[in-house]
Protein backbone atom coordinates (compact mmCIF):
# COMPACT_ATOMS: atom_id res chain seq x y z
CA UNK A 1 0.00 0.00 0.00
CA UNK A 2 2.85 2.40 0.76
CA UNK A 3 4.56 1.68 -2.57
CA UNK A 4 1.35 2.38 -4.54
CA UNK A 5 0.78 5.71 -2.79
CA UNK A 6 4.33 6.85 -3.60
CA UNK A 7 3.93 5.96 -7.28
CA UNK A 8 0.66 7.90 -7.41
CA UNK A 9 2.29 11.01 -5.97
CA UNK A 10 5.18 10.89 -8.41
CA UNK A 11 2.90 10.54 -11.48
CA UNK A 12 0.43 13.34 -10.64
CA UNK A 13 2.43 16.54 -10.39
CA UNK A 14 -0.01 19.35 -9.71
CA UNK A 15 0.43 23.11 -9.62
CA UNK A 16 -1.71 25.87 -8.27
CA UNK A 17 -3.14 27.92 -11.15
CA UNK A 18 -3.94 31.65 -11.17
CA UNK A 19 -7.61 30.98 -10.51
CA UNK A 20 -6.81 29.10 -7.30
CA UNK A 21 -7.45 25.65 -8.82
CA UNK A 22 -4.98 22.85 -9.12
CA UNK A 23 -3.86 22.01 -12.66
CA UNK A 24 -1.59 19.28 -13.91
CA UNK A 25 1.63 20.09 -15.79
CA UNK A 26 0.22 18.52 -18.94
CA UNK A 27 -2.82 20.79 -18.72
CA UNK A 28 -0.60 23.85 -18.34
CA UNK A 29 1.54 22.81 -21.30
CA UNK A 30 -1.49 22.20 -23.54
CA UNK A 31 -3.04 25.56 -22.61
CA UNK A 32 0.25 27.33 -23.31
CA UNK A 33 0.46 25.55 -26.66
CA UNK A 34 -3.09 26.57 -27.59
CA UNK A 35 -2.33 30.17 -26.58
CA UNK A 36 0.76 30.23 -28.78
CA UNK A 37 -1.20 28.85 -31.76
CA UNK A 38 -4.00 31.38 -31.38
CA UNK A 39 -1.50 34.21 -30.96
CA UNK A 40 0.41 33.16 -34.08
CA UNK A 41 -2.84 33.00 -36.08
CA UNK A 42 -3.75 36.52 -34.96
CA UNK A 43 -0.32 37.83 -35.95
CA UNK A 44 -0.39 36.12 -39.36
CA UNK A 45 -3.92 37.42 -40.07
CA UNK A 46 -2.84 40.96 -39.15
CA UNK A 47 0.25 40.68 -41.37
CA UNK A 48 -1.90 39.44 -44.28
CA UNK A 49 -4.27 42.39 -43.95
CA UNK A 50 -1.37 44.86 -43.77
CA UNK A 51 0.27 43.38 -46.87
CA UNK A 52 -3.01 43.48 -48.82
CA UNK A 53 -3.61 47.11 -47.86
CA UNK A 54 -0.02 48.03 -48.75
CA UNK A 55 -0.32 46.37 -52.16
CA UNK A 56 -3.60 48.18 -52.83
CA UNK A 57 -2.10 51.57 -51.89
CA UNK A 58 0.98 50.92 -54.03
CA UNK A 59 -1.10 50.03 -57.10
CA UNK A 60 -3.36 53.02 -56.61
CA UNK A 61 -0.35 55.34 -56.45
CA UNK A 62 1.07 53.67 -59.53
CA UNK A 63 -2.23 54.12 -61.39
CA UNK A 64 -2.70 57.72 -60.30
CA UNK A 65 -2.95 60.35 -63.04
CA UNK A 66 0.28 62.02 -61.91
CA UNK A 67 2.31 58.93 -62.81
CA UNK A 68 0.28 57.79 -65.81
CA UNK A 69 2.43 59.84 -68.21
CA UNK A 70 5.63 58.05 -67.20
CA UNK A 71 5.29 55.29 -69.81
CA UNK A 72 8.68 55.28 -71.49
CA UNK A 73 11.15 52.84 -69.97
CA UNK A 74 14.79 52.93 -71.01
CA UNK A 75 16.87 49.90 -70.06
CA UNK A 76 19.98 50.75 -72.08
CA UNK A 77 19.90 47.33 -73.76
CA UNK A 78 17.98 48.21 -76.89
CA UNK A 79 14.35 48.84 -77.91
CA UNK A 80 13.25 45.21 -77.52
CA UNK A 81 14.25 45.19 -73.85
CA UNK A 82 12.74 48.65 -73.46
CA UNK A 83 9.42 47.15 -74.54
CA UNK A 84 9.80 44.29 -72.07
CA UNK A 85 10.61 46.74 -69.30
CA UNK A 86 7.62 48.87 -70.28
CA UNK A 87 5.24 45.94 -69.83
CA UNK A 88 6.75 44.75 -66.55
CA UNK A 89 6.97 48.23 -64.99
CA UNK A 90 3.56 49.57 -66.07
CA UNK A 91 0.85 48.44 -63.62
CA UNK A 92 -1.95 49.30 -66.08
CA UNK A 93 -0.61 46.62 -68.42
CA UNK A 94 0.87 44.09 -66.01
CA UNK A 95 -2.24 43.78 -63.81
CA UNK A 96 -4.40 43.49 -66.91
CA UNK A 97 -2.26 40.63 -68.26
CA UNK A 98 -2.43 38.93 -64.85
CA UNK A 99 -6.23 39.25 -64.79
CA UNK A 100 -6.86 37.90 -68.29
CA UNK A 101 -4.41 35.04 -67.77
CA UNK A 102 -6.17 34.11 -64.51
CA UNK A 103 -9.56 34.14 -66.20
CA UNK A 104 -8.37 32.14 -69.21
CA UNK A 105 -6.90 29.57 -66.83
CA UNK A 106 -10.17 29.32 -64.91
CA UNK A 107 -12.02 28.63 -68.16
CA UNK A 108 -9.81 25.67 -69.04
CA UNK A 109 -6.96 24.58 -71.25
CA UNK A 110 -8.61 25.48 -74.57
CA UNK A 111 -9.28 29.07 -73.55
CA UNK A 112 -5.79 29.30 -72.06
CA UNK A 113 -4.11 28.13 -75.26
CA UNK A 114 -6.11 30.49 -77.46
CA UNK A 115 -5.41 33.45 -75.20
CA UNK A 116 -1.74 32.52 -75.05
CA UNK A 117 -1.37 32.94 -78.82
CA UNK A 118 -4.02 35.51 -79.79
CA UNK A 119 -3.55 38.09 -77.02
CA UNK A 120 0.09 38.90 -77.99
CA UNK A 121 -0.84 39.06 -81.70
CA UNK A 122 -3.79 41.39 -81.04
CA UNK A 123 -1.62 43.52 -78.75
CA UNK A 124 1.00 43.86 -81.50
CA UNK A 125 -1.58 44.78 -84.15
CA UNK A 126 -3.14 47.36 -81.85
CA UNK A 127 0.33 48.71 -81.09
CA UNK A 128 1.07 49.19 -84.78
CA UNK A 129 -2.17 51.15 -85.09
CA UNK A 130 -1.17 53.26 -82.10
CA UNK A 131 2.17 54.03 -83.72
CA UNK A 132 0.48 55.14 -86.93
CA UNK A 133 -2.43 57.16 -85.52
CA UNK A 134 -1.63 60.27 -83.51
CA UNK A 135 -4.54 60.40 -81.10
CA UNK A 136 -5.19 60.20 -77.37
CA UNK A 137 -8.12 59.40 -75.11
CA UNK A 138 -9.11 60.64 -71.69
CA UNK A 139 -11.19 57.58 -70.81
CA UNK A 140 -9.93 55.50 -67.84
CA UNK A 141 -9.55 52.41 -70.02
CA UNK A 142 -7.27 50.48 -67.59
CA UNK A 143 -9.73 50.99 -64.75
CA UNK A 144 -12.64 49.77 -66.90
CA UNK A 145 -10.62 46.72 -67.96
CA UNK A 146 -9.78 45.93 -64.34
CA UNK A 147 -13.44 46.12 -63.40
CA UNK A 148 -14.52 43.79 -66.21
CA UNK A 149 -11.80 41.18 -65.84
CA UNK A 150 -11.64 41.34 -62.05
CA UNK A 151 -15.40 40.85 -61.85
CA UNK A 152 -15.26 37.88 -64.23
CA UNK A 153 -12.48 36.23 -62.22
CA UNK A 154 -14.11 36.92 -58.85
CA UNK A 155 -17.48 35.56 -59.99
CA UNK A 156 -15.86 32.67 -61.90
CA UNK A 157 -18.32 33.54 -64.63
CA UNK A 158 -18.53 30.71 -67.13
CA UNK A 159 -18.03 32.05 -70.66
CA UNK A 160 -17.39 29.71 -73.61
CA UNK A 161 -13.88 29.50 -74.98
CA UNK A 162 -14.86 31.51 -78.07
CA UNK A 163 -16.12 34.40 -75.93
CA UNK A 164 -12.94 34.35 -73.82
CA UNK A 165 -10.92 34.46 -77.03
CA UNK A 166 -12.92 37.43 -78.33
CA UNK A 167 -12.45 39.25 -75.03
CA UNK A 168 -8.71 38.66 -75.14
CA UNK A 169 -8.49 39.95 -78.72
CA UNK A 170 -10.53 43.08 -77.91
CA UNK A 171 -8.45 43.91 -74.85
CA UNK A 172 -5.24 43.22 -76.73
CA UNK A 173 -6.22 45.62 -79.53
CA UNK A 174 -7.24 48.40 -77.13
CA UNK A 175 -4.29 48.20 -74.76
CA UNK A 176 -1.88 47.54 -77.60
CA UNK A 177 -3.08 50.77 -79.19
CA UNK A 178 -2.32 52.61 -75.95
CA UNK A 179 1.13 51.01 -75.82
CA UNK A 180 1.82 52.01 -79.42
CA UNK A 181 0.90 55.61 -78.69
CA UNK A 182 3.21 55.57 -75.65
CA UNK A 183 6.13 54.04 -77.58
CA UNK A 184 5.78 56.29 -80.63
CA UNK A 185 8.68 58.50 -79.54
CA UNK A 186 10.63 55.66 -77.96
CA UNK A 187 11.13 51.98 -78.69
CA UNK A 188 8.65 51.86 -81.57
CA UNK A 189 7.99 48.60 -83.42
CA UNK A 190 10.88 46.74 -81.80
CA UNK A 191 9.48 47.67 -78.41
CA UNK A 192 6.15 46.15 -79.41
CA UNK A 193 7.97 42.95 -80.37
CA UNK A 194 9.47 42.83 -76.87
CA UNK A 195 6.04 43.39 -75.32
CA UNK A 196 4.51 40.65 -77.48
CA UNK A 197 7.23 38.19 -76.45
CA UNK A 198 6.80 38.90 -72.75
CA UNK A 199 3.03 38.68 -73.08
CA UNK A 200 3.33 35.19 -74.50
CA UNK A 201 5.58 34.09 -71.62
CA UNK A 202 3.40 35.59 -68.86
CA UNK A 203 0.08 34.31 -70.21
CA UNK A 204 1.54 30.85 -70.79
CA UNK A 205 2.93 30.51 -67.26
CA UNK A 206 -0.01 32.03 -65.38
CA UNK A 207 -2.83 30.36 -67.30
CA UNK A 208 -1.09 26.96 -67.22
CA UNK A 209 -0.65 27.31 -63.45
CA UNK A 210 -4.34 28.09 -62.94
CA UNK A 211 -5.42 25.21 -65.19
CA UNK A 212 -3.34 22.83 -63.08
CA UNK A 213 -5.13 23.83 -59.88
CA UNK A 214 -7.39 20.95 -58.96
CA UNK A 215 -8.48 21.72 -55.40
CA UNK A 216 -11.47 23.99 -54.74
CA UNK A 217 -9.61 26.19 -52.23
CA UNK A 218 -6.96 26.98 -54.85
CA UNK A 219 -9.61 28.23 -57.28
CA UNK A 220 -11.11 30.30 -54.47
CA UNK A 221 -7.70 31.93 -53.96
CA UNK A 222 -7.66 32.87 -57.67
CA UNK A 223 -11.14 34.37 -57.33
CA UNK A 224 -10.02 36.40 -54.32
CA UNK A 225 -7.20 37.81 -56.46
CA UNK A 226 -9.82 38.75 -59.05
CA UNK A 227 -11.85 40.58 -56.43
CA UNK A 228 -8.80 42.65 -55.52
CA UNK A 229 -8.24 43.51 -59.19
CA UNK A 230 -11.88 44.61 -59.46
CA UNK A 231 -11.50 46.72 -56.30
CA UNK A 232 -8.41 48.39 -57.74
CA UNK A 233 -10.33 49.12 -60.94
CA UNK A 234 -13.23 50.63 -59.02
CA UNK A 235 -10.96 52.90 -57.00
CA UNK A 236 -8.96 53.90 -60.08
CA UNK A 237 -12.18 54.68 -61.96
CA UNK A 238 -13.42 56.89 -59.13
CA UNK A 239 -10.03 58.60 -58.97
CA UNK A 240 -10.06 59.30 -62.72
CA UNK A 241 -13.58 60.73 -62.57
CA UNK A 242 -12.60 63.40 -60.04
Secondary structure tally: strands: 2
Low confidence ranges = 1-31, 33-44, 46-70
Give the spatial strand order of the biggest sheet: 1-2
> How far apart are the first and last residues' alpha carbons, in Å?
88 Å
**Number of DSSP helical runs:** 9
Number of domains: 2
Main β sheet profile: 2 strands, antiparallel
Shape: globular
- Mean residue pLDDT: 76
Query: What level of helicity do the residues show?
Result: over 70%
Radius of gyration: 27 Å
Return the structural class.
mainly alpha
Name the quaternary structure: single chain
Strand content: under 5%
Order of helices and strands: HEEHHHHHHHH
Summarize the structure.
This protein is mostly helical and 242 residues long. The protein has helices at residues 2-11, 25-62, 79-89, 91-106, 109-132, 141-155, 161-182, 188-211, 216-240; strands at residues 14-16, 22-24. It folds into two domains: 1-56; 63-240, no CATH class.
Could you explain how this protein is built, in words?
The protein has 242 residues and is mainly alpha-helical. It folds into 2 domains: 1-56; 63-240, no CATH class. The chain contains 9 helices and 2 strands; from the N terminus they run αββαααααααα. The chain has helices at residues 2-11, 25-62, 79-89, 91-106, 109-132, 141-155, 161-182, 188-211, 216-240; strands at 14-16, 22-24. Strand 1 (14-16) and strand 2 form a beta hairpin. Helix 4 packs parallel to helix 6, helix 4 (91-106) runs antiparallel to helix 7 and helix 5 (109-132) runs parallel beside helix 7 (161-182). The longest helix is centred in the N-terminal third of the chain and has 38 residues, at 25-62. It is globular and about 45 Å long. The protein starts with a helix and ends with a helix.
